[in-house]
Design goal:
Length: 224
């Protein structure tokens, strides 16, 4: 087997500035993410997101919560999103209709406290969405908290992920721990926001580059 691993892909999320979009793309990110949840300090409107991501050659993701599927589809079309990531209480039916309404993938976020949360998410959304995002749990916030879930409790669930379902690891990741997360969880995608910031929504070039470099290194080690 080759010593070059195609996994994990890397998503830099919570982008709010054009200069940070370009930094992330130049550093080799596979997905560029913009949050469109008004309660978030990183939130952007559909038009702002469209301008932020205009002309990039990298896949783009928008993060939404509890929007109707038709509105979500309209926003995805405005931005030209490759992925629509749902962080609210969306039903499998709405997620399916959203996926059927355009060329984008749909990822559903799960707020994880224990393996049981992942098992329930697989039961509800298997065959409905293209990917599941495992994020840290918070009693109030839907995401972007910087909270990590217990990787050791969830690692065994990796084998239960059906073929064709993208497994995204998020929540509390940064340059200092992304390699360990990859070793334990073996995700298809690692997703970082606050872990590469100097302040809310302001990415730090050195942290972005370090995160991507370390994730690539850990991915290569998995197949040696």
């Amino acid at each position: 087997m080759s010593s070059t691993c195609s996994y994990p892909k890397i998503k830099i999320c919570g982008l709010t500035r054009r200069e940070d979009v370009l930094v992330a793309e130049e550093a080799g990110a596979d997905y560029l993410g913009v949050v469109m949840v008004p309660e978030s300090p990183r939130s952007r409107t559909p038009e702002q997101a469209r301008i932020l991501l205009a002309g990039v050659g990298t896949r783009t993701a928008i993060v939404l919560a509890d929007r109707g599927w038709s509105e979500a589809a309209s926003w995805a079309e405005t931005v030209g999103a490759s992925v629509v990531q749902l962080h609210g209480s969306e039903s499998p039916e709405d997620a399916f209709r959203l996926g059927e309404s355009g060329p984008w993938q749909v990822w559903k976020a799960l707020r994880v406290r224990a393996a049981e949360d992942v098992e329930k998410g697989l039961e509800r959304f298997h065959g409905v969405v293209d990917g599941l995002v495992l994020d840290g749990w918070d009693p109030v916030l839907l995401g972007g908290t910087g909270n990590a879930f217990r990787w050791d409790q969830v690692a065994g669930i990796r084998e239960a992920f059906p073929g064709g379902t993208t497994f995204v690891a998020a929540g509390g990741l940064g340059p200092d721990n992304v390699q360990e997360a990859i070793r334990q969880l073996r995700p298809h995608v690692v997703d970082v926001s606050s872990g590469v910031e100097g302040g809310p929504g302001v990415k730090d070039r050195n942290l972005v580059e370090s995160f991507i470099r370390k994730a690539r290194s850990a991915g290569g080690e998995m197949v040696r």
